[in-house]
Write a structure and sequence with these properties.
Blueprint: E1 2-5, E2 8-10, E3 13-15, E4 20-21, E5 25-26, E6 31-33, E7 36-39, E8 44-47, H1 55-64, E9 72-74, H2 80-83, H3 86-92, E10 97-101, H4 102-112, E11 119-122, E12 127-129, E13 134-139, E14 149-153, E15 158-160, H5 179-194, H6 198-208, E16 215-216, H7 227-237, E17 243-250, H8 256-270, E18 274-279, H9 285-294, E19 295-305, E20 308-309, H10 311-323, E21 329-336, H11 342-349, E22 356-357, E23 361-364, H12 369-388
Parallel strand pairs: 8-9, 9-10, 10-11, 15-16, 17-18, 17-19, 19-21, 21-22, 21-23
Antiparallel strand pairs: 1-2, 2-7, 3-6, 4-5, 7-8, 12-13, 13-14, 14-15, 19-20
The structure holds flavin mononucleotide.
Length: about 400
């Protein structure tokens, strides 16, 4: 058990080895499943549990610290990386009540086959006394599931927000020691998990304004002793603001599209626009997702394969569409040999992105002088749009 404040301990597990989350999200730095134990004068509460893979560690931590009684298990979120050990904790502490809001309770009954009788159902604004300490519950939905709520420990001014403000980072540090080092993992986590819900996140941030928060203890990654740092970062990421920045993900089989990308990226740079080129054959999802938090414009580049887009470009389009970025402008560039529906297919695949489409540039085989001139025109059009949006 690692102490975070008087009678408050971190009892979860560090997962140094995990490299993939949800069979999709790369974890270059591993992760942690944070569970917290609060020993009140009268009642003891466990805040969230850990991924089922690490149940043994949580149980060992509790048993070896001599925890003989748990009165409440606060389950903020149905997802198994936090709820997945509840059944095992209940075996050890059968009198414990699982504290959840109505939505989360229903979800836990479905996902974990828990029984209604296991629960103490709370709603927003409810408080629960531990004797000398008081838990207050705040609904913070869509971070990143609909049922998620947070707990504010009134006397200690600690917020336990579950995934909200989290980061996938395996570290022996309980607290954030270096803010610039946590910024990347926290932004990556926001981009991959939270960014589609930025409107709801803005609502949640607004709701938290009335709480005097001195510490944020999320369910992944280290604890923030300076909450302002991560709250300010979230406010920026979740805003609709974009930067003078173009994301240029591409794939090319025989270099036609690559030549276009090389020329076009230089053309944008010459005009004062920041560009990131992503080769889709080896780019990892986290980098794409992080770019989408800032990019004013996405230009997706693909050759034609079997009438449509190259599957790697299709995968990128599918992801962009799912993440619903705040990107304001979009275009497509690429190449074909004899007949193509690549542009229609890719724009159709990104229909959830509410961005203005700027005239695509498609070449037959290698780009010609005429095609390069069209790429310059596309760069000019992007600059004009960025200027109109006061980004440069
Ligand atoms: C497997 C394969 C399938 C292709 N299918 C089509 C097609 O359906 N329609 C088309 O116009 N060109 C098709 N092409 C031709 C390419 O789109 C064309 O050569 C293009 O210039 C390649 O761009 P790249 O050099 O960036 O890879 C195909 C090429 C390959 C290798």
């Amino acid at each position: 058990m690692r102490k975070i404040a008087d009678n408050i301990y971190s009892v979860g597990a560090i997962d140094w080895d995990r490299r993939l989350f949800d069979e999709l999200i790369p974890l270059p730095d591993g992760t942690s499943y944070n569970s917290y134990l609060i020993k009140g004068q009268e009642k003891t509460v466990l805040i969230d549990t850990v991924d089922p893979e690490k149940t043994e560690i949580l149980i060992d931590n509790l048993v070896s610290a001599g925890v003989t009684k748990i009165d409440y298990i606060v389950a903020h979120h149905g997802e198994q990386d936090h709820s997945g050990s509840i059944n095992d904790v209940l075996l050890l502490y059968p009198d414990a009540k699982v504290v959840a809001n109505e939505k989360c309770k229903k979800m836990l009954i479905d996902l974990l086959c828990l029984d209604e009788s296991n629960f103490l159902t709370i709603k927003e604004g409810d408080t629960l006394s531990l004797g000398d300490r008081t838990l207050e519950f705040i609904d913070t939905p869509w971070v990143h599931w609909p049922e998620t709520f947070s707990t504010y420990l009134q006397e200690d001014k600690i917020l336990f927000p579950c995934d909200f403000f989290g980061s996938h980072l395996a570290t022996s540090d309980i607290f954030v020691e270096n803010e610039s080092a946590i910024y990347g993992p926290a932004k990556r986590y926001y981009a991959e998990i939270m960014s589609p819900f930025r409107r709801q996140i803005r609502g949640n941030l607004k709701k938290l304004e009335k709480f005097n928060i001195e510490m944020i203890a999320p369910s992944h990654g280290p604890v923030y002793k300076n909450p302002k740092f991560i709250i300010d970062a979230y406010a920026k990421w979740a805003s609709e603001d974009v930067k003078n920045y173009v994301m240029l993900p591409y794939v090319s089989m025989h270099d036609s599209t690559r030549k276009m990308v090389e020329y076009f990226s230089q053309s944008l740079m010459d005009r004062g626009v920041k560009v990131d080129v992503f080769n889709l054959t080896d780019v990892e999802l986290g980098k794409l997702a992080m770019g989408l938090v800032d990019a004013a414009t996405i230009v997706l580049a693909s050759p034609t394969m079997l009438i449509g887009a190259h599957p790697s470009a299709g995968y990128a389009a599918f992801l962009v569409n799912a993440l619903r970025p705040k990107t304001k402008f979009m275009s497509i560039i690429g190449s074909y040999g004899w007949g193509s529906k690549m542009v229609d297919q890719l724009t159709g695949m990104m229909s959830q992105v509410k961005a203005e489409i700027i005239e695509p540039v498609v070449t037959k085989g290698y780009p010609t002088e005429d095609d390069y001139a069209k790429l310059d025109e596309l760069a000019d059009a992007i600059v004009a749009k960025h200027k109109e949006a006061s980004l440069m």
